[in-house]
Design goal:
about 350 residues, alpha/beta, Aspartate Aminotransferase, domain 2, 5-stranded mixed beta sheet, 3-stranded antiparallel beta sheet, 12 helices, about 35% helix, binds 4'-deoxy-4'-aminopyridoxal-5'-phosphate, amino-acid biosynthesis
């Protein structure tokens, strides 16, 4: 049966975000920027000790334990943190809460593709300034009239990180607009813009447990800002769903923050592998951006990216490719373990090095 036009007229029809594949068979999985190492041992220990009540009862709607652990870690007030079901949930609520101007919001033309999806979903007008020839954000493009600004730092999928001064310039030119910095990958890169929170009331920084804390499956993300903007986010959240965070996510998230040593070691292993792989790919003739994330963004002057993507997949090695004409010559490769990267590089050496 086809649905009649009269009905379709009043339905919200959207082009959804397309997530990377989650194959169930065993593959070398370098396609969705997960962390190849397990979470801190405290996480599994807490998970195994979850009480029956933590299944039977609703969770704490304020996620108090997790908020307190984050506030201690980040040295901000508990009223400066908002938590959600991954940073996707947090960012989506930020779009709904903060981008209500008639003026267009700004985000780069090459960036996290979910921004465009949320803008369309919530009917927020937007303009996408172009990156420069080296995939860098041109900060002056963000000095014009706008209804808000959002970009990731490091940007995705380019993996390029901008220093905090760069963010501060944009904040200074946008005193009356909300600026959201999506720091999903910042732990692999450098300093966080959270250091600017107390000086700029227009700044919101989001981060996630999915990448640097190896907890993508648990779905934990958060925003840091001033108490007033956090209150606005909470009011929208409570108008949507009071119980977003499960008991397991609240307890495991708090546990993950206990072990700083493990966190730092995990990150330095990934950074070291990233730098090694970058060098080996360059030896094979690939051009790589100066990645500061847990993934690489690469192109080869003599090999078609889509073809390479398909051949890799055929060999059980999953990476990411987009058909967008602006980046169709590029592949995005998540940094896995040294063993996984060796399988990936051996495949390329056979193909290209020969
Ligand atoms: N921002 C960026 C730039 C991302 O690449 C991702 C991961 N797809 C997210 C946010 C969302 O991550 P999560 O919802 O797992 O926190």
């Amino acid at each position: 049966m086809t649905v009649r036009k009269e009905l379709l007229n009043n339905i919200r029809i959207v082009d959804p975000y397309v997530p990377g594949e989650q194959p169930r068979q065993k593959v070398v999985k370098l396609n969705t920027n997960e962390n190849p190492y397990p979470p801190a041992p405290e996480v599994k220990a807490v998970f195994d000790e979850l009480k029956e009540d933590e299944f039977r009862l609703y969770p704490d709607p304020t996620s108090g334990k997790l908020i307190k652990a984050l506030a201690d870690q980040l040295k901000v007030g508990e009223d400066q943190i908002f938590v959600g079901v991954g940073s996707d949930d947090v960012l989506s609520l930020c779009f709904l809460t903060f981008f209500n101007s008639e003026k267009p919001i700004l985000f780069p033309d090459i960036t996290y593709s979910f921004y465009q999806v949320w803008a369309n979903l919530y009917r927020i007008p937007y303009v996408c300034p172009k990156l420069d020839g080296k995939f860098r954000i041109v900060k002056e493009d963000y000095y014009k009239v706008n209804g808000g600004i959002i970009f990731p730092n490091p940007n995705a999928p380019t993996a390029i990180y901008e220093e905090v001064d760069f963010i501060e310039d944009i904040l200074r030119h946008n005193r009356d607009n909300i600026v959201i910095i999506d720091e999903a990958y910042v732990d692999f890169a450098g300093k966080s813009a959270i250091s600017l929170i107390d000086r700029y009331d227009n700044l919101i920084v989001t981060q996630t447990f999915s990448k640097s804390r190896s907890m993508a499956g648990m779905r934990i993300g958060y925003a840091v800002s001033n108490p007033e903007l956090i209150r606005c986010l909470n009011d929208v959240k409570y108008s949507f769903n009071s119980y977003t965070m499960s008991c397991a996510a609240i307890s495991c998230g708090a546990a993950a923050l206990e072990n700083t040593e493990y966190f730092k070691t995990n990150i330095s292993k990934i950074v070291q592998t990233r730098e090694n792989v970058k060098e080996q790919l360059r030896d094979l003739g690939f051009e790589c951006t100066d990645s500061k994330a847990n993934f690489l963004f690469v192109t080869h002057p003599r090999y078609d990216a889509l073809k390479l993507f398909e051949e890799l997949k055929e060999a059980g090695i999953y990476v990411r490719h987009w058909n967008d004409p602006k980046i169709k010559d590029y592949l995005r490769i998540t940094i896995g373990t040294d063993e996984e990267m060796k399988i990936f590089l051996d495949f390329l050496k056979k193909k290209i090095g020969a």
